Amino acid sequence: MVGMDNAWLLAALPAGAFAILLIFGPYLPRRGDWLSIAAIGASFILFFPVLAELLDKIDTPGALPGLSGWTWIEYADFKLRLGFAVDQLTIVMLVVVSFVALMVQVYSVAYMKGDPHYGWFFTCMSLFAAAMLTLVLADNFLLLYIAWEGVGFCSYLLIGFWNERRSAAEAAKKAFITTRIGDVGLLIGIIMLWRSTGTFDIRETFEAARAGVMSEPYLTTAVLLIFAGAVGKSAQFPLHVWLPDAMEGPTPVSALIHAATMVVAGVYLVARTLPLFELAHPAALDLVTALGLTTVFMSATMGLVMTDIKRVVAYSTINSLGLMMVALGSGQVAAAMIYLLAHAFFKALLFLGCGSVLHATGKDDVQELGGLWRKMPLTATVFGVGVLAMAGIPPLSGFWAKDEIILSSSQHQNAFVYGLMVLSVFITGLYMARLFLLTFTGEPRDRHAFEHAHEAPPIMTVPNVLLAVLAVVAGLVVFDQVGEALGFPGGIGKFVYLAEPEAFKFHGGVAAVSIIAALAGVLGALYFWRGEAKPAKAAGARFPFVYALWKNKYYIDNLYQALIDHVVLVFSRFIAWWDRKIINDTGVNGSAALAVYSGFRLKFLQTGRLPNYAFAIILGVVVMAIVAMTVLV
Amino acid sequence: MIPMQHFLVLSGILFSLGVYGVLARRSAVLILMAVELMLQAVSINFIAFAVYLAPDAFVGLIFAVFVITVAAAEVGLLLAIVLRIFRNQATANVDEVDLMRW
Amino acid sequence: MSVEEGVFYVIAAITVIGGMGVVFARNVVYSALFLILALLAVAGIFLLLSAEFLALVQILVYGGAVTILVIFALMLTRVQDTPAALDSPQKPFAFLAAAGVLAILILAAVGTTWPGQTEKINAIPLRDFGDALFRTWALPFEVASLVLVVALVGAIVLAREEDGE
Question: Which C residues, 20 through 49, put their C-beta within 8 Å of a C-beta on chain B?
């Protein structure tokens, strides 16, 4: 019977599929897409027995986490375990990853049809699934880091999937390098922890930290470095710049990696290491909250002016990630996780909906779309569900999840933070509704594209509908009654928690404010962008500076480019010069030339004449004798 | 009673004369003669040590016998070589036999 | 100064003169003759050192065979008598080297404290010498005779005329 000690299978199956596809992919029928889907489907099915065993053991103290795995390398005080641990946090991530991956892969069968690299797509998808599942199952930091790098690599492969396109290659490079900056921090943080605790195991590190092995500055530094990794992967300010560009990849990739799974790896990491954050200096969590808040606000404003539908959804992803970080900054693991769960569903839904639009019309710019609900009613409906969920309209899941976060921020943070959160709810409603209106309502702006538009095939719509259903109901797991009915000890607050289980709290006033803000946003969008969007254009003309600021992404990309051009490349050129001129020319070639030249000069010593040689011998003897008599006496 | 150092000094003088001869003479045969001088000096040295310092195990004496023996063999061979070179190069001047130069 | 010392100085002087003649003579045959003088004087030194057997061997081997060979070689290689043919351009360096060697040797000889007495000459009885030579040092003795055979054969092989030469 599969149980928690076989949980590693969930990661191993897609890994096996990847290996087979890598070698035999081109020879399999249909390039092996069925193999990849079967593997991830099997992982999804195997999730349920694991969940069942977890629920069985949940009240037994010490039974969790369920551990499995084996030691790979053991040498002196270094130990690398392929270790897998299942606990509540992992279980939530497992269902998210396996289900959304399955939906996306099924969707891709139709979306990627006819692509010359069709088989390679599924190979990368399998690898990604394996890496992501390993990441959430890992019980030690080193394995987590390996998987972390693995998902980053898959992201690179998949963003640059259409590598004939210059922009795609550049975007992949940008993504990799930007997350790299964070990854370096993560690695240093992990090493710092290992140096003081002597172990990579996550739980042993927690115990050591609680025992006070590390000084507070040391622990805080390590924790902040780990957070740097999360900043990179989860696209927080200032490392958020890669995510919008990552939309160069195929839409299923965006749905899976840049909405539901990889980007939340950072959130998972912070949630997993939250005990360390709690033990560190409070400034660490404050930084998490601050960056999260900045991210929320900036991305919301930028989403308001973008015209590429995928980019708008990308900015909404950054927005959501910021919200999750704010939640974690207040120590609310349950709130963050419920939002993660709901967000996975409705964000994937939104992306796949964009994909359907793209597939149908070949256009992704709202300036060329419009009025599509007549041609694609099903897609329009589910997209609308996604929009409302994102905006936070009850009773959709987005509302419950967002409400938890806003409630916690109102209770644990100051009024400024709360105010910004409410403002962001308003803006989110605004730009999400704007997206829907511009794409699906009004008059079509490009007649030609409109004529060709058609509803997506069932293979694409079924996953969308499933995701939509979940987007509607997933929020209900916050209620204790719903949770207990499903076999959980209660609502999500009682299931995933840091210090103590918490029941779902509902504060009427706070909820009302959020609902009003969200509705105001949606209705405001209706006013601004309805029909010809005249009010929006007027507003844009009235505040040109602000409009330009948002449209140019706060000029951050320009800043980074300038930094690279004037700092990094200058340094690189110097290093290249050093390597070429000093090390190669002078050092390597120079010593060779020196040897040749000295040989050229010294060869005259070999006269071939005996008396000269005899003289040399005698001279040597005399010198040695002198040395022996004077020095060694 | 002759102090040992007298013999050692004598052998030193002979040896250095031999060194000069080896380095300053042009013909191979002349160099050979200087080498013989050097061997003589060595023999004197050995015998002096044996007789003065270690008369019980008089290894120096035995060694001197062998020195003479080997010197004789060496002279024979050396002259054969010199004759060979002389036939090839028409000269016995060591300065002019420099085929092994750079 | 005792009689022995006086005798020693005379014989030593003869030896040195002979040596100098070998390396400084302007006539090659004179060099050879001075060599004979030096060799015989060294035999005298051996006598002073109470190594009579060796003195005899010296006269026989060196004074007899070696000098004959040397003179034959001089004749066969036709060494000229001109200064250019006698002395190499390396002369100054040779002086320096020789002087250096001399200085070192004299310093070593005079400056070292020798382990043992340095005054009395101990004569080695011939009987013991012979015993040692043929008993303890039998193997080197045999090898030495082998060396002589090899030299003999080698000299013949090297120096004989090939066909056509």
Answer: 20, 22-23, 28, 31-32, 35, 38-39, 42, 45-46, 48-49
Please name which of B82, B96, B88, B102 lies closest in space to residue B31, comparing C-alpha atoms: B82
Distance between CA C84 and CA C75 in Å, rounded? 19
Q: Flag whether B17 is in a domain.
A: yes
Rounded Cα distance, A96 and A90, in Å = 10
Under 8 Å CB pairs connecting chains A and C tally to 22
DSSP string, A235-294: T-TTS-THHHHGGGS-HHHHHIIIIISHHHHHHHHHHHTHHHHHHS-HHHHHHHHHHHHH
Judge whether C127 is closer than 8 Å to chain B, CB to CB: no
Q: Phi and psi of A496, rounded to 5°?
A: -110, 115
Query: pLDDT for A70-127, tens place per residue?
Result: 888 888 777 777 888 888 888 888 888 999 999 899 988 888 888 888 889 999 999 9
DSSP assignment, residue A579? I
Residues A451-496: pLDDT tens digits? 777 777 888 888 888 888 888 887 777 777 777 777 777 667 767 7
Residues of chain C with Cβ-Cβ distance to A618 below 8 Å are 97, 100-101
The one-letter amino acid code at A329 reads G
In contact, A325 and A263? CB cutoff 8 Å: no
Considering only CB atoms, which chain B residues are within 8 Å of A611?
A: 22-24, 31, 94-95
d(CA A352, CA A108) in angstroms, rounded, equals 9
Q: Is residue B95 in a domain?
A: no
Measured between alpha carbons, how far is residue A610 from residues B3, B27, C69 in Å? 38, 11, 22
Is position B32 within any domain? yes
Determine what percent of chain C falls in helix, strand and coil, rounding each to the nearest 5. 75, 0, 25
Strand A66-75 relative to strand A78-86, pairing? antiparallel
* CATH code for position B56: 1.10.287.3510
Q: Which two tokens stand for residue A534?
A: 């005249």
Give the Cα separation of B4 and A559 in Å (integer): 94
User: Strands (DSSP E) along A419-458, which ranges?
Assistant: none
The structural domain count of chain B equals 1
Helix (H, G, I), strand (E, B) or coil at A435: helix
Q: State the burial class of residue C71 (Cβ atoms within 10 Å of its Cβ: 0-12, 13-18, 19+).
A: middle
Residue with tokens 């290894």, as numbered in its chain: B59
Chain B residue with minimum CA distance to A603: B102
Query: Which amino acid, A390?
Result: M
Task: Using the structure block, give the residue that is written with the tokens 């010359």.
Answer: A116
Domain span at residue B78 reads 4-89
SS3 C42: helix
Residue A415 DSSP label: H
pLDDT in tens, C2-45: 888 899 999 999 999 999 999 988 888 899 999 999 999 999 99
Question: Distance (Å) from the C-alpha of residue C96 to the closest C-alpha of chain B?
Answer: 9
Rounded to an integer, the average pLDDT of A602-631 is: 87
Q: Is the Cα dihedral A396, A401, A407, A410 positive or negative?
A: negative
A463: preceding bond cis by omega (within 30 degrees)? no
DSSP state string for A359-371: HHHS--BGGG---
3-state secondary structure A540-570: HHHCHHHHHHHHCHHHHHHHHHHHHHHHHHH
For chain A, give the number of residues: 633
Indicate the burial class of C112 (C-beta count within 10 angstroms; 0-12, 13-18, 19 or more).
exposed
Q: What's the pLDDT score for residue C84?
A: 65
> 């049809």: which residue's tokens?
A113
Tell me whether residue B49 is in a domain: yes
- The Cα A406–Cα A390 span in angstroms is 14
A571, amino acid identity: F
Chain B residues whose CB is inside 8 A of the A600 CB are none
Phi, psi of A371, deg, nearest 5: 65, 25
Read off the tokens for A198.
Answer: 């002597």
